[in-house]
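REQUEST FORM: STRUCTURE PREDICTION
Request ID: SP-0412
Submitted by: Lab K.M.
Chain count: 1
Length (residues): 351
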Amino acid sequence: MKPIRLLGTAFAVSALLAAGTGSVFAQTKTLKFGHDNKADAFENPAHACTAVFANIVEADTNGSVKVEVFPSNQLGSAKEHVQMVRDDVIQATLSSTGAIASYYPRIDVLNLAFAFDHNAATYDVFDGPFGNALARDIEAELGDVVVAGFPDTGGFFAVTNSKRPIKTLEDFEGVRIRTMTLPSHQKIIQSLGGEAYPLAWGEVYSGLQTGVIDGQMNPVPIIAFAKFAEVQKYMTLTNHLFSPYTLMLSKAFWDGLTESEQRTIRYAAESCVTASRGLSRIIESSDRGLAGLMDKIEVSALSSGDRAKFKTAAQPVVLKHVEETLGKDGVALLELFKTEVGKANDKLYLD
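STATUS: Completed
RESULT:
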């Protein structure tokens, strides 16, 4: 009879273990993270950001939060990702300024052309009082998201085209440039003498190839991995815009996390931002960025004098656009942006 009793005990222990295991699995929370770039953490800042985020969250929550990353618009467009986060269909995304603009028009204050002097200034602004104010304003306006940071999309914008080198305002005349569907982007190109042509991201390469558009504007890493040098002849390092991603989470998902899990996601998001910045700077300076592009496309930079002329032409139209369309809240946010950018541009690092 003893073996029978032992067998019964074994079944009881197995049942308890199974019940306990089921309880652990029931507590696991899945965070689905969608973005619109390729699944290569060494090629683009977006996937570097999500890869670092996923690794930290899964490790430091001891598996209580599982992260599933869906790159390359597998679940929909960038704009659709924002709505999916709001509906808790997915739990996180990296939203471009263009994708979030229809939900949060005040994101357009970031498009004050020729605002920043250097990359380090962008870090100060988006990690400081302005970034905090912007995050809280997005959360208040949408009501169903949590903003966890502003990762780098690749750095400052450059302009490519197939018609002529652009070194002066006169060179811009009549060049048709693809923009996002942001009114400010269109107004900037028009203020410089170009023709603005809004076009979906997925159609840009073919548009350049067929001549529907003459050029486009994006950070150097994006120009490189999108292989635009295959269909463009000239690139100008205008550095006229810096448009970070907005890392947003579903508030419904966030509210279901423990305090410990929320803390982990916060510092994982900070590491995600850091990774996006680091990879952006590395790509810019490597043969997969500017160095590699210089062998395939004619590259020029604006002189300080011409940059001043570009700034004088472009900034007033953005200021007017904000005043006319974004109301007093938009104007107040823009004023804070200008103040913090000024401080960051003047800051002496390690002085």
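NOTES: Residues 79 and 100 are 7 Å apart (CA to CA).
Reviewed by: T.R.
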